[in-house]
């Protein structure tokens, strides 16, 4: 299984960064507005709808407030299709007033690692932009 780890410092308190990430039903409003058009929660499943109508179904595995860690798996709708996808977000303090977002994604097949890495890096930049903008408001 390929493992992709990406870290990015966000100019917002770790508490604020975590508050956005743990709000699993508001991805379209707080984490990736514009990239995700809608989010729907059904039990422990999350459905992300993209502007083109494509839907990804995820399983929310854990939301750990104490560790500031969210774990999820894509179970349907990945493009390109994946055999396995498991990811975590962790938030740690960075200096006096910032948060470090650590996004780790494990994926099969291995051949998708470079494409997934590009998506993770771009997604982290978009998340940073949205979280910092909300922290300023």
Task: Give an overview in words.
- It is a single chain.
- The protein is of the alpha+beta class and 137 residues long.
- It has a single domain (2-21, 60-136), classed as 2-Layer Sandwich (Alpha-D-Glucose-1,6-Bisphosphate, Chain A, domain 4).
- 28% of the residues lie in helices and 43% in strands.
- It contains 3 helices and 7 strands; from the N terminus they run βααββββββα.
- It has helices spanning 14-22, 27-31, 113-136; strands spanning 2-10, 38-42, 45-49, 55-64, 69-76, 84-94, 98-108.
- The chain has a 7-stranded antiparallel β-sheet.
- The longest helix is centred in the last third of the chain and has 24 residues, at 113-136.
- The model has no long low-confidence stretch (mean pLDDT 97).
């Amino acid at each position: 299984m390929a493992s992709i780890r990406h870290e990015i410092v966000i100019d917002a308190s770790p508490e604020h960064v975590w508050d956005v990430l743990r709000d699993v039903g508001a991805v379209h409003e707080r984490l990736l507005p514009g990239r995700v058009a809608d989010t729907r929660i059904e039990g422990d499943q999350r459905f992300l709808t993209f502007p083109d109508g494509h839907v990804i179904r995820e399983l929310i595995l854990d939301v750990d407030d104490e560790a500031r860690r969210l774990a999820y798996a894509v179970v349907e709708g990945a493009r390109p299709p994946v055999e396995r996808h498991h990811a975590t977000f962790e938030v740690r303090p960075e200096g006096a007033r910032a948060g470090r977002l650590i996004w780790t994604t494990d994926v099969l097949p291995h051949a998708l690692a470079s494409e997934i890495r590009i998506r993770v890096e771009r997604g982290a930049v978009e998340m940073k932009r949205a979280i910092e903008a909300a922290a300023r408001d």
